[in-house]
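A note from the maintainers: we've had questions about how concatenated examples are separated. There is no special marker in the raw files; a new sequence line simply starts the next protein. For clarity in this README we add a label.
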Amino acid sequence: MTKWHLCNPRLVVCGDMLLMVGCRKDFHVIGSVFEAYRLDTSTELAKWVKVERLEKWAIFISNDSRAQPLPWMNPERLGGRSNRVYCYDSGSGHLVAFELGKPLHGDDAPKSDVFSFSCYSSMVQPIWIVPSMFSLCCDGQ
């Protein structure tokens, strides 16, 4: 893997794994594929090893590079799905769910009442993702 392999790679900790997660193309493009690589420190020279499945994890990524990726264990408890990378699509105002290692399909956007974004300022800022049941937003405002 070269440093140019993924577009805008992000580091995220899922349990005991340090992952580098990124997309092979711009993630707004149909056909985009997200990939994850785990840092393997079992050898003298650590190396990045491709991860085929996130198992019980989902990862939320904002297109704002200042926002940290958010790993979420067992997202099914709140209506989400494991082995997904959720990205905010500013064009539609919804999260788009990418199954790790697979191209985007039209039915991958979650229901709008499952997860929501909290943002209370007109200034550009990192976006925190919270389950909509805890959101202070009313009627999508």
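[label: protein 2]
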Amino acid sequence: MFKAQNIISIGVFAFFGGTLRYLLGEWLSYNGTILVNLSGSFLLALLTYYAIANNRWPEWLTVGLGTGFVGSYTTFSTFNIDMLKMITQNQAGLLSYFLTTVIGGLGCAFLGYLVAKQFNKREQR
């Protein structure tokens, strides 16, 4: 069932996440896309393990931060368009861009999980 507070939270947080992604993409081009996808992987894993899995925050906040902010902040579609541009323009760095995003994203997600795990351990003391 849809909850109005969740929908409003997603919309508000999505505004900020999407705006930040746009600004970083304009400022850093391809590197902006890499930065948002890597940091977004870290943030989503951190939020998921710390807040959502442990019911630490209200549902509207976790949904707003995860789906709204991180969902609009990260961008699989821009990653794909960047890859297509690099392919059609025969740009160097295609493989590096791909591997940095995919392998780096997994690494950042794992790091987010580890950080959240440490936060949870400290709170349990």
